[in-house]
Amino acid sequence: MRVSHSPPRTAAAALAVAGLLLVAFDGSAATGPRILQKSTPGEIEALALDGSRLAYDVSAEYSPKRCNTVYVWNVTRQTTTRVSGRQTCGADNTSTGAGVRELALAGSRVAWIVNQGGNSESGDYLYTTLVAHPGERVLASAYRTGDVSGVLTGNWLGGLVGADRFLAVNHWATDSHGEVTTAGLERVAARMSDLSQGVATMTARATDGRQLAVLRSDGTVGIYSTGAQLRRTVVPSAAKEVALRGDYLVVLTKASTLEVYNSHSGRRLRMWRAAGAAQLDISSGLAAYSAGRTVRVVRLTTGKSVFTAHASAAVSAVQLEPSGLAYAFRGRGNSGRIVFVPMRRLR
Question: For the segment 278-329, what is each residue's pLDDT rounded down to a tens digit?
C-alpha cells in the first residue's frame, strides 16, 4: 500500500489519505497483489469467508437507513451483492436481541442467525439465501421465555458453521433450571435434516466442508465427519476457541496458547504462546488471530510470524481461507472497515 506524503490540496484529499492510514502492515506483506479495503456505513457485526466470497453484516445502529444488512463481496470480481431483505433489516430493533449473531458462507449459499428479544423472551431465526438469487427465507426458528438476564426455558439455535457446500447448525432445549434437555446437529440445505442427536454434538465451531469440530461444554473437542460420524475426541487444556482445516485442528486456550493437533490422529504436534489472542482461524498451513488492534498470521509448523497488521480500532472478526485473510474493525466515526489480504501476501 502506498501513501503519499505530499501535503493534500483539498479537504477531500486529506480524508482520502486519512482513510488509507487506518491500517498499517508489517513484514512480508510489503509486496504482492493489492490489499483490498472496504468501508461500510455501520459497524460490522459478523464476517464469513469462503473461497473468493466474503459475507458481512452491517449493523443498523448507525446506518443512515437504520437497516441491518447482509452483503456478499466477491474479492476477485470486485462486486458486492445485498443478500438480506426486509426481515433482517429490523434485526437490531429489539431491546435485548443480539441482531445477526452468527453468519456462515458455503460456496454460493449464505446463512445467518438473527437473535431478537425483550425482557422475558428471546428468539432465534435462521435465514438462508443464494448469492446469485438473493431472497432471504426463514428456514428454522427457536423461542424461549423467562428472564433474559437469568434463566430462559425453551428452544435455541446456534453453532452455525459453513464451508465449501456444507452448512450445519445446532439446536437444543433448556428446562426451567437452564439445563439442556435435548440437543442435536442439523444439516442446512433447501430444508433442515438431522445429522446427529445428543449434547455431545454441542456446539459446532468450525468446518472445512469435510470435517466438523465441536467444542463441548466439558472442554473436549469432538471431530466429526460431515455425515456426523464421530472420528475422534481431542482433550486440550482449557479450550476457548477451535479452528479446523485439512490435517490440522488448532485450539486457542484460555491460557493464551495455540495448541496444534493432527486432525486425523488427534495427536498434539506443538504449542505456542499467543498473548491476548481471539478470533482464531486457520488455512494453508497458517493460523490467523487478533490481539486487540493487531492481526497476526503465523506458520503452524514453526510458530513464526509471516504477517502483522495494525488497525485503528479493536479487530472484531478474522477469517482465513486459501484465497487470503479478511478482518474487520470499526472505522472512523461509526463506520465499519473490512480488509482483505490475498494469500500471496502472506507467504
Answer: 999 999 999 999 999 999 999 999 999 999 999 999 999 999 999 999 999 9
Chain mean position to CA 256: 19
Tell the residue number behind the cell numbers 486459501, with chain if given. Answer: 322
Which stretch of DSSP H or E encloses residue 20? helix 11-20
**Alpha carbon distance, N-terminus to C-terminus of the chain:** 17
In 3D, which of 236, 245, 242 has the Cα closest to residue 278?
Answer: 242
* C-alpha to C-alpha distance for 326 and 339, rounded to whole angstroms: 6
If DSSP codes are grouped into helix, strand and coil, which group holds residue 264? coil
Beta partners for 163? 166
- C-alpha distances (whole Å) from 221 to each of 31, 132, 213, 247 are 38, 35, 7, 15
Q: How far apart are CA 240 and CA 245, in angstroms?
A: 17
Residue 321 CA to residue 284 CA, distance in Å, equals: 7
- Residue pair 313/330 in contact by the 8 Å Cβ criterion: yes
User: Beta partners for 281?
Assistant: 288
Q: Where are the domains of the chain?
A: 23-345
pLDDT over 80 (residue 9):
no
Partnered with residue 210 across adjacent β-strands are none
The domain 23-345 is classified under which CATH number: 2.40.110.10, 3.90.190.20, 3.40.50.2300, 2.130.10.10?
2.130.10.10
Cis, bond preceding 257 (omega within 30 deg of 0): no
Instruction: Give the model confidence (pLDDT) of 119-132 as tens digits.
Output: 999 999 999 999 99
